[in-house]
What does this fold into?
Amino acid sequence: MKVYQQALSLRERKRGFHIITDEVENALPEISLIKAGICQVFIQHTSASLTINENADPTVRVDFEMFFNKTVRENDPAYKHDYEGSDDMPAHLKSALLGSSVTIPIRNGQLALGTWQGIYLGEHRDYGGSRQLIITAWGE
It folds into this structure.
């Protein structure tokens, strides 16, 4: 079995959901050497998240942002963790709901995503800065 790993620093993005599939694939070209395996993408932050969803219609990402902003509101007076700004605790909650990693099968040297699937970065802070990923692929 082969194991490959690469760190990837994503440029700063505005708050919202962003497709990062190409950046992940470009960061670890050794995926092409794996006939059957797994790729895990992990984000090293607690106020941003990763998920897989539709990559074709950009309104899906707009609706994701609208839904999460309605579901996890800012400025809730019940939050105790508020000294980093009104978007910080909601960002942690959104990240916990979506998760910090995605796992994708590798088939014949490619990520085996569905026709309309892409990897999303959920940026939940107004000014989150660059985000660090660890991409690990293994298989034969």
